[in-house]
Design brief:
CATH class of one domain: Alpha Beta
Number of helices: 20
Helix content: 40-55%
Strand content: 15-25%
Subcellular location: Endoplasmic reticulum membrane
Keywords: Endoplasmic reticulum, Glycoprotein, Isoprene biosynthesis, Membrane, NADP, Oxidoreductase, Transmembrane, Transmembrane helix
CATH superfamily of one domain: 3-hydroxy-3-methylglutaryl-coenzyme A Reductase, Chain A, domain 2
Number of strands: 13
Membrane topology: Multi-pass membrane protein
GO cellular component, one term: endoplasmic reticulum membrane
CATH topology of one domain: 3-hydroxy-3-methylglutaryl-coenzyme A Reductase, Chain A, domain 2
Shape: elongated
InterPro entries: HMG_CoA_Rdtase (IPR002202), HMG_CoA_Rdtase_cat_sf (IPR023074), HMG_CoA_Rdtase_CS (IPR023076), HMG_CoA_Rdtase_eu_arc (IPR004554), HMG_CoA_Rdtase_N (IPR023282), HMG_CoA_Rdtase_NAD(P)-bd_sf (IPR009023), HMG_CoA_Rdtase_sub-bd_dom_sf (IPR009029)
Largest sheet: 9 strands, mixed
Distance between the termini: 13 Å
Radius of gyration: 35 Å
Oligomer: single chain
Length: 583
């Protein structure tokens, strides 16, 4: 492996100039210039100072009493005055012993020149070493400058890069560790998100006594996540992104980005894409598009709860409620209201379109508008919560499986018999039988809720992470039923996936981060659609369903052909010694 980078090419930003530190194995302290330990030196000078002051005051009082001129001094008086001056100078620099060292132990310019030459030799030696890279970001060695280098950002300790902090940063770190400065306030206090992350990271390491050296800090735009994606960052996690495809859907080809650490997943999905492409492609249809939010309200009696239910579900009142709801956004449009009663409690499930956004915030604002409006006619209504879990978000729920949430999509393809045999290495009959006994019967035996598939969540999670979606919504977005049957007199295979609650967006949240935005751009769905609001997010949902179809087709074929264990043993087993690699 390449040798680690010994110094940074970018200076650390600071509120005051950074003190340059020559590259050495250990930087000496100012107190090292003293012959005694610092605490003994301090005690000695404190004792000397107060003793001399007491002696001089006593002598001057005696002279005044005996009418002796003050300028007449004895040898003991001279010694006392000199001791007073020496101890006074020391105490002036008590909290910064560097002052004493700068007066007494100054180095000549020749010494610094010699040390710089030694530094250049040390850099050359360190660059020649073969040790594991500390970070998987930029392991290339920058060219050595023609002059002796002075490191202002990092120093070498045990052949690993260690950040050198400024004196001001050190004080802030101590304040965070002591609890006097809240960690969450660093960005606002410093005005520099990268510096705040570095200080928070160092404070955390000192508090827990564990190293974060394997977690990258550099190479990320911390300004882009401030106030919207992540709080109190200390670094970022690297996840490799693989490409499956081309995936032919509705006559268009897509290269599908998948962020995952599971071996075989991208390769398997890619094989499914190949089988679909060779068979003429897949067809994906959007059935429904509407995000939901369901507040819980309570009344004094069940009758009052029923009165509100009837009012909300009355078609004559829908237009009025729509006007109130739609005030919150130019994209959010109320589509329907469904209510459920549990005693005195009423759960109101609002559904609305959200354009190219995933839409949770949009629908929540509209719901709040309606609740405020209802208080006029129903003053006894007590709003328990803006979300009453009847939505249902980030939890497996039958209401999502039946009614749908987000985008409801069905995707199908007819795979030719020779493609099943040559590419998928199995037969139509074996796939149909396996799908019935595994995905349908087996899932029913397990009491599955929306899990009538082989591994839809694998593909959904990988695409969600790559494109900046909310990974937690993989729970309901992976609701899927996979169907397979023989067609054309049993020669070919018809395969389909039906997914009622794919929750995706192409604006907002993590979609605006650089890496995730690049993956959306790869699919041609970056940002909001200028022609048709919501078109990009709907296209993304059809791509997700089509990629799930490819993944289902390939995994089921591997199981039918008895290749699953063999493939994972070959591609999902690392022969690398992790303990040595991380050292």
């Amino acid at each position: 492996m390449e040798a680690p980078r010994l110094y940074s090419t970018k200076p650390v930003q600071s509120l005051k100039p950074t003190k340059k530190i020559p590259l050495e194995e250990d930087t000496g302290k100012a107190s090292d210039a003293l012959p005694l330990p610092l605490y003994l030196t301090n005690a000695l000078f404190f004792t000397l100072f107060f003793s001399v002051v007491y002696f001089l005051l006593s002598r001057w009082r005696e002279k005044i009493r005996t009418s002796t001129p003050l300028h007449v001094v004895t040898f003991s008086d001279i010694i006392a005055i000199l001791s007073f001056l020496a101890s006074f100078i020391y105490l002036l620099g008590f909290f910064g012993i560097d002052f004493v060292q700068s007066l007494v132990f100054q180095s000549s310019p020749d010494v610094w020149i010699a040390e710089e030459e030694d530094d250049e030799v040390l850099l050359a030696k360190e660059d020649a070493r073969k040790v594991p890279c500390g970070q998987a970001l930029d392991c290339s060695l920058p060219p050595l400058p023609p002059v002796a280098p002075i490191v202002t950002v990092q120093k070498v300790v045990d052949e690993k890069p260690v950040t050198v902090l400024t004196e001001e940063d050190e004080e802030i770190i101590k304040s965070v560790v002591a609890g006097t400065t809240p960690s969450y306030s660093l960005e606002s206090k410093l005005g520099d998100c990268k510096r705040a992350a570095a200080i928070r990271r160092e404070a955390l390491q000192r508090l827990i006594g564990k190293s974060l050296s394997g977690l990258p800090l550099d190479g990320f735009d911390y300004e882009s996540i401030l106030g919207q994606c992540c709080e109190m960052p200390v670094g970022y996690v690297q996840i490799p992104v693989g490409i499956s495809g081309p995936l032919l859907v509705n006559g268009r080809e897509y290269s599908v980005p998948m962020a995952t650490t599971e071996g075989c997943l991208v390769a398997s999905t890619n094989r499914g894409c190949k089988a679909i492409h060779l068979s003429g492609g897949a067809t994906s249809v959007l059935l429904k598009d509407g995000m939901t939010r369901a507040p819980c309200v309570r009344f004094g009696t069940a009758k009052r709860a029923a009165d509100l239910k009837l009012y909300l579900e009355d078609p004559d009142n829908f237009e009025t409620l729509s006007v109130v709801f739609n005030r919150s956004s130019r994209f959010g449009r109320l589509q329907g209201i469904k209510c459920a009663i549990a005693g005195k409690n009423l759960y109101i499930r609002f559904t609305c379109s959200t354009g190219d956004a995933m839409g949770m915030n949009m629908v929540s604002k509209g719901v709040q508008n309606v609740l405020d409006f209802l208080q006029t006619d129903f003053p006894d209504m007590d709003v328990i919560g803006i979300s009453g879990n009847y939505c249902s978000d980030k939890k497996p729920a039958a209401v999502n499986w039946i009614e749908g949430r987000g985008k409801s999509v069905v995707c199908e393809a007819t795979i030719k018999g020779d493609v099943v045999r040559k590419v998928l290495k199995t037969s139509v009959e074996s796939l149909v039988e396996l799908n019935m006994l595994k995905n349908l019967t087996g899932s029913a035996m397990a009491g599955a809720l929306g899990g009538f598939n082989a591994h839809a969540s694998n593909i959904v999670a990988a695409i969600y992470i790559a494109t900046g979606q909310d990974p937690a919504q993989n729970v309901e977005s992976s609701h899927c039923i996979t169907m397979m049957e023989a067609v054309n007199d049993g020669k070919d295979l018809h395969v389909s996936v039906t997914m009622p609650s794919i929750e995706v967006g192409t604006v907002g949240g993590g979609t605006q981060l650089a890496s995730q935005s690049a993956c959306l751009n790869l699919l041609g769905v970056k940002g909001a659609s200028k022609e048709t609001p919501g078109a990009n997010s709907r296209t993304l949902a059809t791509i997700v369903a089509s990629a799930v179809l490819a993944g289902e087709l390939s995994l089921m074929s591997a199981i039918a052909a008895g290749q699953l264990v063999k493939s994972h043993m070959k591609y999902n087993r690392s022969t690398k010694d992790v303990s040595k690699a991380s050292s």
